[in-house]
Amino acid sequence: MTGTVENVYSKALFEIGKEEDTLDLLAKELEGLDEVFAANPELVKLLSSPSLATGEKMAALERIFKGRISDTAFNFLCVLVSKNRIRHFSGILKAFKDEVNEYSGIIEVVAVVAMPLKPEIKEKLCQKLEIVAGRKVSLIEKVEPSILGGIILNYGNMQMDSSIKSKLEVFGRQLKSIVV
Description:
Elements: H1 5-20, H2 23-39, H3 41-47, H4 54-65, H5 71-82, H6 89-104, E1 106-113, H7 119-133, E2 136-143, E3 151-155, E4 158-161, H8 164-179
Parallel strand pairs: 1-2
Antiparallel strand pairs: 1-3, 3-4
């Protein structure tokens, strides 16, 4: 995947953030910007519109974001807009976070649960995962009521599914094979 738009831009931002010692700040700012863009898809359309002059796009960026985010994050946005790459923002963010995590020795684990985990349970889960992985864990919790209960852990391309839904599905298949 080296050479993709997402990787090229994330690598450049990573190097700047590393040099300025602002990787964590940049990651938080980019996550916030990603939320803004997700909530306002018309803003991304506006900033990537070929019918709007680059100067007008820059003026819009300045009105919306200048002074609300770091100069590095703002300048990065300006580069993305001027190079017509803003529509790749979410992918750039993901690649950037992957690089920051790799650099920091952190693995990202997604925990899919039926209802939010209590803080003490979340902490114990992180501790157990850190022991198993031998690295610091960043736990991302996603609430998905359809799993009914239990937990699904995703790391990279690996998955551990101990949800009630999957156990019921397995039981249903076993029962079906007996009855049929």
